[in-house]
């Protein structure tokens, strides 16, 4: 995650952008995503800590389905059914 954040910041500088963000996509119930984000942000200066965050795959898929045209929503719906709609194996 830290290397991706550095890469994003470098890309921002090279392209002359005002700001940048690194967003980690992971399943909502992934056991360590939040812990991993904290393990990086706690060592960043306050002015950089906001640049790294997480979005759940489920929320991302729902947003894409809600806001994209029907052509694309079909792809995201298939992805969601295939990879995100499963039950926990006991």
Question: Summed up, what is this model?
Answer:
By secondary structure, the protein is mainly alpha-helical. The protein contains 5 helices and 2 strands; from the N terminus they run αβααβαα. The longest helix is centred in the first third of the chain and has 14 residues, at 2-15.
What features would you describe in this structure?
The protein has 90 residues and is mainly α. The chain has helices at 2-15, 33-41, 46-49, 57-67, 70-83, and strands at 22-26, 52-56. 58% of the residues lie in helices and 11% in strands. A two-stranded parallel ribbon has the order 1-2. It starts with a helix and ends in a 7-residue tail after the last helix.
Explain the layout of strands and helices.
Elements lengths: L1 H14 L6 E5 L6 H9 L4 H4 L2 E5 H11 L2 H14 L7
Parallel strand pairs: 1-2
Structural class label: mainly alpha
User: What's the β-strand tally?
Assistant: 2
- SSE string, helix = H, strand = E? HEHHEHH
Overall shape: it is flat
Mean pLDDT, as a whole number? 91
* Largest sheet strand order: 1-2
Rg computed from alpha carbons, rounded to a whole number of angstroms: 16 Å
Unreliable runs: none
Biggest sheet architecture: 2 strands, parallel
Beta strand % = 5-15%
């Amino acid at each position: 995650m830290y290397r991706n954040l550095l890469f994003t910041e470098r890309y921002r500088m090279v392209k002359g952008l005002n700001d940048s963000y690194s967003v980690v996509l992971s399943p909502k119930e992934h056991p360590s995503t939040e812990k991993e984000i904290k393990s990086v942000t706690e060592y960043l200066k306050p002015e950089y800590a906001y640049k790294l965050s997480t979005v759940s795959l489920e929320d991302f898929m729902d947003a894409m389905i809600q806001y994209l045209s029907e052509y694309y929503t079909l792809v995201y719906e298939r992805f969601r059914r295939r990879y995100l709609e499963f039950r926990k194996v006991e």
